[in-house]
Write a structure and sequence with these properties.
This protein is mainly α and about 140 residues long. It has a domain of about 80 residues. Helix content is about 50%, strand content about 0%. The longest helix has 19 residues.
Length: about 140
């Protein structure tokens, strides 16, 4: 069999996404995954035009959904740069290259921004909300 043991096959889904999806496989969840910090972000100075507009649109949404951690910063930047590149290409009247669109789809899916990726995730209440609901 080709590949490297433990690295072949489909990408592993992060535990947080498994929890949000209700752990559909009902397998034991790993307990040793790193819990990355969540900081408030400001747009990097090299984002401009449509990339900056997309940053201003998407970061508050993903922050409110508690999806972003500090480890996701470069993925969000790459996503915004790709959106900016696609907009500039479309404005110039040129066709969007397949590789650019593929990058966009991949990054959007990683961030849970496509209908298919959102369909796999269910929102959960915070611990405080669920504890308070216990007494209702």
């Amino acid at each position: 069999m080709a590949g490297v043991a433990g690295r072949s096959g489909a990408k592993r889904k992060p535990t947080a996404l498994k929890v949000l999806a209700g752990n559909p496989g009902k397998r034991a969840l790993p307990e040793n995954e790193p819990d990355l910090p969540r900081s408030a972000w400001s747009a990097p100075d090299y984002l401009d035009g449509d990339a900056l507009v997309e940053w201003d649109r998407i970061v508050p949404i993903l922050t409110a959904c508690k999806v972003l951690t500090d480890g996701d910063l470069q993925t969000v930047i790459a996503y915004c740069l790709t959106v900016g590149e696609m907009a500039a290409t479309a404005r110039a009247g040129d066709p969007i290259r397949a590789v650019t669109f593929s990058h966009f789809r991949s990054l959007a899916s990683e961030l849970g921004l496509t209908p298919a990726s959102r369909a796999r995730v269910q929102t959960i209440q915070s611990k405080e909300d669920s504890d308070a609901a216990f007494f209702d």
